[in-house]
Design goal:
- Strand 6 and strand 7 form a beta hairpin.
- The protein has a 7-stranded mixed β-sheet with strand order 2-10-9-8-5-3-4, with helices on both faces. The chain has a 3-stranded antiparallel β-sheet with strand order 11-12-14, covered by helices on one side.
- With 353 residues, the chain is α/β, with parallel strands linked by helices.
- It folds into 2 domains: 237 residues, 3-Layer(aba) Sandwich (Aspartate Aminotransferase, domain 2); 100 residues, Alpha-Beta Complex (Aspartate Aminotransferase, domain 1).
- Helix content is 36%, strand content 17%.
- The chain binds pyridoxal-5'-phosphate.
- This is Phosphoserine aminotransferase.
- It holds the Pfam family Aminotran_5.
- Its EC number is 2.6.1.52.
Length: 353
């Protein structure tokens, strides 16, 4: 039985959320399924409004000029939507991994992009520091957590221009001053809900400044004016995201989950550092609390180790195909006990070897 899900997504959710979600599929509104009611009906409009409000509340951004949207097309659509809505002349991007690289590629379709810093030549195993953000650019874009290589920005610059951040793989996992950001986006499928919706939190006053015509579906202002219901929203993904945010709020919010996430990260990284059979991939100071990447020092032990963790009920530990090795993804809903189970297997391997 697969008991401990370390998969990089999608998606690990609290069991209580899964339970409520499955009940809503059978009976959400007086015998009707969540999947068959109108998205314009009051019960679903309430869900959407609650989801938008909870996102702002958890991030501490209520009443500060931000709007929350639940859009479709994944975080990948945000790569181009950000550029379409904000890029007039030039933008600065911090290149910290595969996803930043893809965001840069999409934005380049529309205009000039300057990489303020990049760790590409080092296999993205660190976060560049000491870079400068030009004051006359349209915006600065960064990726808070590098899901594939396992690095995480521990601090953010005081940007003189609007700061846009892809928080797909660490949204709601740690306390930050979210008001430093003018636009945050995150695919739901790591810390929030099923794949199919993307949270966008945008400060309204940065919009409407580009000269190009923006197709309606790509225009944040259109989605804001329609209360995130310009077209049929992904009702199930939004509902489950709302349940997960409610779960997080009841738990004590981001502060409470951050403490758990730090315990989990300390446990796995101390094993990686103390156990001579393993080696961490990324530099210590930039290690991600969400995705711990590591390799075996001796590849001959791979077969034994793989059999051991599978036997212990662990799932999804293989590294991304572009990196190899192992990746333990420890999103909000993964328990400390699951990390303990993995660490036990790692130390058992040491005693066997
Ligand atoms: N950005 C980051 C940091 C990610 O981890 C991912 C997917 O894992 C994406 C963007 C792409 O998200 P999507 O598949 O929703 O387009």
């Amino acid at each position: 039985m697969k008991l401990h899900n370390f998969s990089a997504g999608p998606c690990i959710l609290p069991k209580s959320v899964m339970q409520k979600a499955s009940e809503a599929v059978l009976n959400f509104d007086d015998g009707l399924s969540l999947l068959e009611i109108s998205h314009r009906s009051k019960p679903f409009v309430d869900v959407m409004e609650q989801a938008r409000a909870l996102a702002l509340e958890l991030l501490g951004l209520e009443g500060k000029g931000y709007k929350a949207l639940f859009l479709q097309g994944g975080a990948s659509t945000q790569f181009l939507m950000v550029a379409l809505n904000l890029l007039e002349k030039r933008a600065g991007y911090l290149n910290t991994g595969t996803w930043s690289d893809k965001a840069i590629k999409e934005a380049k379709i529309y205009d000039d992009i300057y990489e303020v810093g990049s760790s590409k030549s080092a296999g993205f195993n660190y976060i560049p520091k000491g870079y400068e953000i030009p004051e006359d650019y349209d915006y600065f874009h960064c990726t808070s957590n590098n899901t594939i290589f396992g690095t995480q920005m521990k601090s953010f610059p005081d940007s003189p221009i609007p700061m846009v951040c892809d928080m797909s793989s660490d949204i709601f996992s740690r306390q930050l001053d979210f008001s430093k950001f003018d636009l945050i986006y995150a695919g739901a499928q790591k810390n929030m809900g099923p794949a199919g919706t993307t949270l966008v939190v945008v400060k309204e006053d940065i919009l409407g400044k580009v000269s190009r015509k923006i197709p309606s579906m790509m225009d944040y202002k259109v989605h804001i004016s329609k209360g995130s219901m310009f077209n049929t929203p992904p009702v199930f993904a939004v509902y489950v995201s709302m349940l997960t945010m409610q779960w997080l709020k009841d738990l004590g919010g981001i502060k409470a989950i951050e403490e758990e996430n730090e315990k989990k990260a300390r446990l796995i990284y101390s094993e990686i550092d103390l156990n001579p059979l393993f080696k961490g991939y990324s530099v210590k100071e930039d290690r991600s609390n969400m995705n711990a990447t590591f390799t075996l020092e001796n590849e001959n032990l791979k077969e034994t180790f793989d059999a051991m963790w599978k036997e212990a009920g662990i799932n999804g530990l293989n590294g991304h195909r572009s990196v190899g090795g192992y990746r333990a993804s420890m999103y909000n809903a993964l328990s400390l006990d699951s990390v303990k189970a993995l660490v036990e297997v790692m130390s058992e391997l040491e005693s066997k070897a």
